Amino acid sequence: METAIQTSHIRKTNFIEKLVLNKYFWILACTFLFVYPIAKSMNRMLPAELPVLGDVPVFNFTDENGKPFGTNELKGRVYIANFMFTSCTTACPILLGKVQKVQHRIRGVIDRAAIVSFTVDPEVDTPKVLFDKAREMKANPVVWKFLSAPVNETKSLLVDGFKVPMGNKEIANSVMDVAHSNKLVLVDQDGKIRGYYSTENDSINKLMIDTGLLINRKKKS
Questions:
Q1: Could you give the CA distance from residue 37 to residue 169 in angstroms, rounded to a whole number?
Q2: Mean pLDDT per 10-residue segment, the chain (221 residues)
């Protein structure tokens, strides 16, 4: 009777299998996966500084509650300035609608950012009228202020300070009109103008990015 001779084939473990079975490999892998994202975020370079386009002079206007509001109250905060008047039926409603969305987008940084709407028709836009407009726009009084001052003072701040146009009140299409800029102006924590933006979506998105950069850069420093 023949004895069956059984042979067994011993498979050698290749390098990859040895590596996978090695506990030290997994320790190193887990450490790398945990540490690398943190190190990358810490070393991430912020984009170049926004240019300084001018300085907003010291001002002290009246807010929608009839209280003084100006440079002192805005110090240390990034703010977005815009220009409007409540009886405007053309560009201003569109502008304020965009600003309302900006308010929503900066809700997480209300201690470091603000919105300021300057009326170019202070003779009509009394604090009471601006208060009603603020409520209509669901403006958070901590974030979004509506300001007025005498016409000459307003025009001086807009033209000489913000470097935006402001016309005289005149009859246009049977409606009392005041020519003014529809731009949004980004001002940093030190009262320096850092950008002008239109109400187009791409420009608003750029405004939000630049606002965040100013806030974060100040926070890091």
A1: 57
A2: 48 60 65 59 66 97 98 96 93 95 94 96 96 97 97 96 90 68 96 97 96 84 54
